[in-house]
Amino acid sequence: MATSSSPAWTATPATDASGVESTCKKYGLTVDEFHELRRRCVASKATAYCPYSRFRVGASVISVNNAYFDGANVENASYPVGTCAERVAIAKAVTEGHRKLRAVAVATDIAPPASPCGMCRQFIREFCALDGPIIMFDKDENYTVLRLQELLPLSFGPEALPSASSLPPV
Q1: Smaller CB count within 10 Å for the chain: N or C?
Q2: Would the keyword Nucleotide-binding turn up in this protein's UniProt record (predicted)?
């Protein structure tokens, strides 16, 4: 689930065409892909099941094959059992055979934009390159973008673990 604190960044309005174009060039997205990610993650908030926190989160991811997958947070009476929107969207992608993501977008009902939580950052790391953009939209659809490596510095991923073929037999 996305989290918010006093950010060191400022948000750009999604209606600022030159800002969006500049963002897209910097992060390897088309303007259409950016707007589709925005539209989908904002719409996904409406499907959130969050009767306890009342904190709606929507997410959308785009794979390297240009397929989109969406998710929303799903809470549970046993609070730690809930699932964040980002992990729902990524799990959908993975279970459909899309294990390499180009970008992740998340939207909340607060301002400034909220970032993915630590657990989601590590989950994203499994399927997204370190230079992949994480786009965060606030309640007014203003956004900020950080690369995964900025959100999860000094991370480790699957390449840091030994492969199954290099492990001794069990």
Answers
A1: C
A2: no
Give binding residues for substrate as ranges. 73-79
Binding-site sequence positions for Zn(2+): 84, 117, 120
Determine the structural domain holding residue 22 and report its residue range. Answer: 12-149
Q: ω into residue 153 within 30 of 0, thus cis?
A: no
Catalytically active residues are: 86
Residues contacting 56, CB < 8 A, separation 6+ = 45, 46, 48, 50, 72, 73, 108, 109
pLDDT tens for 25-80 read 999 999 999 999 999 999 999 999 999 999 999 999 999 999 999 999 999 999 88
